[in-house]
Every structure is written in structure tokens, then in C-alpha cells.
Structure prediction request, 615 residues.
Amino acid sequence: MFWQLLANGLVTGSVIAIAAVGVSLIYGILRLVNFAYGDYMAFGALAAYAFNGPRGLGIVVSVLLAMLATAVLSLVLDVTLWRPLRARRAGFMSLFLASIGLALVLRQVLLLAYGPQSQEYKVNPYKVYVIGSVRLSEAQFITILVAAVAIVAIGLFLSRSTIGRTMRALADDRALAAVAGINVGRVIAYTWILSGLLAGLAGVLAGLIQTSFNPNFGFQLLLPVFAAVVLGGVGSAYGALAGGLALGLAMELSTWPSLLGGVNPVYKPVVAFAVLIAALMVRPQGLFGRARVI
Amino acid sequence: MSALASGGFWAFVAVVAGVYTIFALGLQLQFGFAGLLNFGQVAFMAIGAYTMAILVVKEGWSTWLAAPLGVAVAAAAGLLLGLPALRLRADYFAIVTIAFSEIVRYVATNQDSLTGGSQGTIALGKVGQAAQYNGQWERFQTRFQGWLGVSSKDVAMLVIVWGAAIVLLALVWLAVRTPWGRVLRAIREDEDTAASLGKNVLAYKLQALAIGSGLAGVAGCFYAWQFSFFSPDDFQPLLTFFAWMIVILGGLGRVWSVPVGAAVFGFLFAGTRFLDFPPLSYLSGADRAYVRLIVIGLVIIGLVLARPQGILGKRDEMVLE
Prediction:
């Protein structure tokens, strides 16, 4: 039971972690809490469905195409919405509200396009992988493999590649980075592309592990993702990874019956927030955030 | 198109706008005057409505006792949330309040024995019995309708809700003119300066949060009475965003801008129901509901881009940043 919950926690946590990096990178560089990110994820999930379901492409190809589509969406929205707002020097509140407006528009457009009914990917629901005492469905198995690769890739990208390091430099101190000759506009565009790729990937993986999903599911995904970002320390990409995994594990392990009888599974999202609020009381700057005077 | 001309429909829209006025007034006090980013306002509406309904159905309380207690519980919940959460930075506070409103909704959905669960208030009573919490209210409303001498129930409700809204608006308007209101605005502008002058910043913020939550509780009771039934689905975070839109639409840091914002919002929300000319008439009813929310989303974005001080807001005093 424990090992099964641990495996489930890793599956849930890695999806949250991937999305949390996407949110955190944008926040770090633009100070934008992107409330529409859940709907970027839903867009990715439904795009993959469009390739995998009606067109019958394989799930891997569909995921890649969906990531690409979400990255394009992300870049287009930067040019049409976020760039004009930046030009007006919009502050935190304006950006947050604009992202709420965008979330409404995106979700309703998805509902218009796909309808409110639930969709499923074409994976074998009966295939089960057994590892020791842990049983994983095919969807969970794919998720765990892809997520592990993605998390390592994200870590390497941010620590080793020039673009990744530039992104972190920009998040750290924008003025200093600009003075050091970094082309801020270009890095912002790259960051939106990466954030979009991650949204697409996390969306599809979330759709896979939930087995069925509809255009409304983005919002349910969003709150644990925000919790992970805050838990890890806002703006810290590594913190977001760790925060996501920690929350996923906390959510699944809280249902362990040997742990004071366990929490009713319907309260898993509540557990995520309880962890978040408790952590913020102790470390208001997040696990990996730096305490600083603003 | 018949509904467009019917007075009953517009009376209904006006009632809803009145409820939203009270709901958004709380947010105006919290954000427009005290600068608090409360994104969980809908939670307090839910707490007010549920406390009232539960006390009436399960404990057999009089509506006239249960409703004020509902408001008090909503205000107390605001205090309880504020005590830990107000220690956080503004953007973290925003996220924690959204989280709180979702927790309230999850609990309301899943604690069937307390709230009737996802079936809503109809399941509040014993199994197989449709529970009603508004018998006393209905009798009052009918008597009031007879006293007014109007034929429509909605018109009677309109007078009650807007009467209450105007009283509450006036009270808040007076309150923000007192030294207390000036301290709130000072905190909004510069917390550290207010603190250096010996003002207890946390206490003032808590007061604003609790009063705003109480106002949401009042709105919750009226909401419950107007619809005679509600379920956790009525308290989606979307409602909080509607309140934000009303406050920003009307203008920040102003009391009388709230009913203006609510009226414009109500008209926009109800009016988009009549977008049934081509090419929109080719869409089904459900699809048109999506288009309605797309319009609202675009209005929010447009406001942020074009008029960050709102319709009646003063640019010198407060602009959305």
C-alpha cells in the first residue's frame, strides 16, 4: 500500500512539478502570475487528443505535436497580449487580472471547440505494469517515464545551456542581466516558448493519469501547481520542481490508512493547501526562496 | 426576444446586480481602501449562505436569528484566515485566499452530513425529504409585496435587496470618511509609514478583511433567498472574479462606483443573452453561454489595457498597477 501510494505520489508530483517550472520561469522573469496557465495545459491536453483521437496518431507523436502547438499559442499570446501590457508598464495586479480574463477566454474557446464532454486518449486501459508490490497502468507508466526524462532535461537545460542560464540570470536581477548585454526581449520570447512546451507536456500527462478530461480541467490542475510554485519559493525553478514533487507525495501519502486512518481521497487538494499554508507560516519565502527585503 | 422587453426579466437582473453590489462592496473595502488582494471572496458568501440555511433547517432557528449569525460567522472566518495569511506578502496572500475559497467549496461538496454535499441544500434535511430554508423569508416577502402593492415577486425582492445595498453602501461611505478610513488608505499607500506613525497595521487590515467578509455573508443570504436553493457549484471562484471585475469596472477606491459597476456588469452578463443575431444565432444555447463568458473575459482584458482606473475612478487616487 505504502509503495503504491509513493508511486502514485511520484506520478502526480512530477506532473505538478513540470507545470510549476513553467509558471515559475514566467513569474521569475516577468513578475506575472499566469492564471491562464491551467488553460494552456488544457489546450495542450486537447490538442494531443485531437491528434491522438480523431486522427489516430500515436500518443508519443501526439504529445510532441501538442507541446509544439502550446508553445506557439504561448508565443502568440506574448506578442498580442503580454507585450502590449509590458509596454504600458502594467503592474502585478493588472497582469494578474489580464491573465484571469485570458483564462476565461481560453477555456470558453476550448469549450466551443471540443464541447463539455470528457475525452480520453487511446491507450490500453487494461495493460498493467507490476513492479514489486506496485501496479501501474499504461498511462501512469508512460507518465512516470516521460516525466523523469523531462525533469532531468529541465534541470540540465537550466544549469548547463546558455539560454537556460540566461533565463535564470534574468529572473535573478533583470537590470543587471540587461547591463551584462543579455537581449531581454529575446530571452522573454524563449521563456514563453519553454513555458508553453512545459504546459503542453504537463497537460497531456495530467490528462493521461486522470484517464478522462474536459476543457474545464485546467483550473483544477492550476491550484496545486500554484501551491507548488509558492512552496518551492516563487521564481525559483529548482524550487518549483521540488515543491511539485513534495506536494504530489504529500497528497497521495496523506491517504495512507496506516497514517491516522488516512485522509479521504476527495480531500487531496485540501492537503496540498494545508501543506502550503503550514510551510508558508514557517518559511514565508518558500523552501528554496531567498529571504530578501523588497 | 420577448424576454428582452419583459419587466420581470429585468427585475431579476436588477436583483442579481443588487446582490453583486453587496458582494463587491466588501471587496472594494478590502482592495480599494485597504489594498488587500482577496481572491477568495466567494468563500465568505458560501459560509454566510450555508450557515443560515443549516441553522434554519437542522437547528430549527428563526431566519431572523440565523441570517445575522451567518454574517457573523463569515466575518469570523475572515478574521481566522487573515490572522495567519496577512503575515504573507501580497501576492502570496492572493494565492492563499483562492486556495481557501476552494477548500471551503471542497468541504461543502464532500461533507454531506453538514451541507447536503453536491446535491445542495435540498439534501440538508432527513433522507428522502426536500429541505427548505426559506419558508419564513417567503412569508415576509409576500407580506412586503402586498404592502408595496406590486404584482411581481421579483419587484418586491428588488426593493428589499437594493434597500439593503443602499444602507450598506452609505455605512461604508461614512466609515471610509472617518479617521479609521483614512488610516486604511494610508496603509494601502504605504504600510511602513502607517506603522511608523504608531498604527497597528495588522489590526486595521484584519478589520477590513472581516467587515468585507461579513458583507459577502450578507450577499450570501440574499443569494440563498433569491434562488431558494443552492449547491457548492454556486460558489465557484468565477464569482470572485466577477466581483473583481465589478470593482475595477466601477472604479477603485470609491464607494458609489460599486453599484455602477454591478449594474454595467449585470447588463453585460444578462444582455449578452440576447446576442442571437447572425452569425451568433447559428450557435446552440450552450455555445452562446460560452460566447458570453468570452465577452466578459475580453472586457476584463480591455479594461486593464485601456482604462485601469475604471469608469468612475479617479486617476490621481488609485490606478490598477
The first strand of chain A starts at residue 119 and ends at 120.
